[in-house]
Amino acid sequence: MNIDFIKLFNEIVRLAKPAIGKASFASSMEDKFEDLDLDSLDHIMMMMYFGSIYEVEEEVLQKSKYETVGELQEFLEKNKTRNIESFEQAMEYAK
Q1: How many domains does the chain have?
Q2: What does the pLDDT profile of the chain (95 residues) look like in tens digits?
Q3: From the CB of residue 78, how many other CB atoms can be counted at a distance below 10 Å?
Q4: Comparing C-alpha atoms, which of 86, 87, 81, 90 is closest to residue 56?
């Protein structure tokens, strides 16, 4: 992957987290979701964005298991059907 995944992850958190919610951002690939104040609705919204960006089928997304930002990246890399070359391209697919 040619993009900074933490930068992309944090932007997706910003998009997925309701404006009234407290957003916590990742600083490393080892950051755990439970430590980032992301609830189950946040996870669902984030995976919708990541599914759209990487073209991962909904059934596959629903079966995803990960605890850290790095594990999420590995999951997406393994299950993607679209290659992302830049942060800007990723954000275009997130719309």
Answers
A1: 1
A2: 457 999 999 999 999 887 666 778 999 999 998 898 888 888 889 999 999 999 999 999 988 888 999 999 999 999 999 999 999 999 999 98
A3: 9
A4: 81
Name the pTM for this structure. Answer: 0.89
Residue 87's nearest CA partner among 11, 31, 13 is 11
Q: CA angle at residue 10 from 20 to 29, to 5 degrees?
A: 130
Task: Look at residue 69 and tell me if it is in a domain.
Answer: yes
AA identity, residue 86:
S
Q: Which residues, including other chains, have CB under 8 Å from residue 28's CB and lie 6 or more apart?
A: 6, 69
Closest CA to 33 of 20, 50, 53: 50
Instruction: Show the domain range for 64.
Output: 5-17+31-94
CB 54 within 8 A of CB 81: yes
